[in-house]
């Protein structure tokens, strides 16, 4: 399970365990061999090796003692703002976005501080939150160079497939991956009950059991719409525009206005739960609440917070830092919301606490925490995905980026092809 412990304030999550659950039984494509090769995989824990806060807190305090200084909140915030104005703005006042962000932080600060204490203490008591690793960390973790987004750009030069195709879905066959598979125009699925290591575009990737994906950009989503599936849960992690992204050129961003082009209403089942990750810019949060969700006929119901901590249970950034905060926001709503007798009422505020990955935009899975709030056998969809999940459909221009074999450790299984069933791949 990805949930280490839970209480009325939220959950402490283990980001690796959910991924590992689907990889206990893997099989590689044949590569000309007569017998399939079985093994099991684990996501490398070194990618979650955050031992110390990125910025040390000035005072000699930690999460457990910061609550005693709660009465000085207003004074500390005032000092932070004055310092920032002198260093960054000099004589110019803070802009509206900065003022909005400061007001928002003031509203949720106590929620983060007080709500996290019991969960972090429970994580320490059970031995999960500790600096000790089962294996020594590498000096520098290699990072796979992902070229999927560039390939999607090239694929736009190809002619569009016939949008009248009744079944725009292709399945892996048991003998390996057909080199003629069109990954850009069809949904590809692994219908097997075990993970499958396949070679896609000369690279090895692990596809979890019963996972489906479409590799494309926003201009070529019609196979997803034409599949006829209606989803009970849709999670989005948009590539929001910001200055640091533009400067670094690490990945392409998407203007907020273009998000309205996403066919969410066409993909959503009645009462579909829609969840959107958003950066801490007040402009983006306001856009979701006031423009995007109303445009999709989604009623805003809640805002949850992802709180990022070190392996020792400290915030990765000081809570009152005038720059980066140790949390991100999730906005939750329902498509044409109608009260359901099958799903629990959605709480307005919850905390999701976890050690973040050092890999950019590698978010924790929401499957376990959202399960009570959707139908018992849901169809789930992730938009702008960079990894795959069991029993989910995923879409994006880097949709299986973090499924690359280099992100996993593997151990040969004692299971042999002579004593085990062949994976149920059509």
UniProtKB/TrEMBL annotation:
Residues 69-96 are annotated as: Disordered. GO terms for molecular function: nucleic acid binding; RNA methyltransferase activity; site-specific DNA-methyltransferase (adenine-specific) activity. One of its GO terms (biological process) is methylation. GO terms for cellular component: cytosol; nucleus. Pfam families: MT-A70. PANTHER family: N(6)-ADENINE-SPECIFIC METHYLTRANSFERASE METTL4 (PTHR12829:SF4), N6-ADENOSINE-METHYLTRANSFERASE (PTHR12829). Belongs to the MT-A70-like family. This is Methyltransferase-like protein 4. It comes from Onychostoma macrolepis.
